[in-house]
Amino acid sequence: MPSTTRPPEVGEPLEPLPKEFAAFMRPELPGLMKEIGAEVTRAYPVYGRLLNGPNADAIRQGVEQALYAFVDRVADPGKNAALRDELLRRFGRVEAYEGRELDTLQGAYRLGARIALRRARAVGQQYRLSPTLILAFADALFAYVEELEQISREGYVEVQSRASSEVPAQRRRLLHLILTGPPLPQALSGLCEAAAWPLPADVTMVALRPPLPEHLQAGLAEDVLFDLDVPHPHLLVPGALTPERLTMLDAALAGSHAVMGLTVPLAQAADSVRWARRVLKLIDEGVVADAPVVRCEDHLVTLWLLSDPALVGHLAAAELAPIEQLPASRRDRLVETLRVHVSTRAPAEQVGEMLGVHAQTVRYRLRNLDALLGDRLADPDHRFALEATLRALHLLSRETGK
């Protein structure tokens, strides 16, 4: 008699993994993310470009969610994965906006799975796990990949289901392509024609902070491109922010917070939105003062000084090494005196007023600094490095509250 046992559905693993297996895999995830990122971008260079674009944070978050959700499911099969699902749909939308078939994304998913399986085998050898358990892991992993592909396909179909003549869909795709540059795609002119959007020489990007007002879209001028249904919503305004443009934006953005990027050539639009988003983050960190509308152009030095906080730490260690071993309270007093001294070039009396100490105290500290730093204060290169470092440290101290 033939068997009546029903075969498993597509995407359904043959056997559940024991919950304890999550404890073996979780410590491997940070290193696994880096390895997958390196191998996927080597195999699919298009994803390397996207990881250096304005949506890089969302892409990395999506990869992280996909990996951690798998391990979380092993530990707790009922755990909610709504954030993962939305980010994976976003991956599918990106593929549709850029005109690729889903084969590329599916190939990246499967390459990631092979790398994860390779790591699981190494973990299995390390902890002497049974071959049966590793086979169960492989089965569950590739079933999980099919699930990821299906969720991304939902986002892909969502975009493709819109009629090709639908102007809003064309304009959203156009905005996405502009922000992937440079170089700008050759098909951009044709897409501009299909979207009924004149190609400008210069643009100004605007980064928005959710939640967004319901009237926002209705208040925008006809030629403003926008993407409001993403984790980091943004606008593209053709040209500079003229008084008329600012009036329009003030009305449309009423009730929300935004950062106006720099006006740049079209090919640099991704830079403009990246800088604007960085200022939003600095606002959240308390470095830049909050306001309904903030302009990037008012914070260019801050953006430059804090473009790489980790590098600031190394520069500070090098430039301030002679005073690093002093007791913390004395070191802090000397550093603050040095910051005011090199940034103002003011006499001791004025520096003392700024610091709330006597001028003689300032002179005493400066003599100590001369003795500790030697020729650094007289050397133009070191003096510039010191001033930049001290300004950056002072900005970072606003974030930490020190």
Automatic annotation (TrEMBL):
It holds the Pfam family PucR-like_N. InterPro entries: CdaR-like_regulators, PucR-like_N, PucR_C-HTH_dom, PucR_C-HTH_sf. Residues 16-179 form the PucR-like N-terminal domain. Residues 334-392 form the PucR C-terminal helix-turn-helix domain. This is Regulatory protein. The lineage of its organism: Bacteria, Bacillati, Actinomycetota, Actinomycetes, Kitasatosporales.
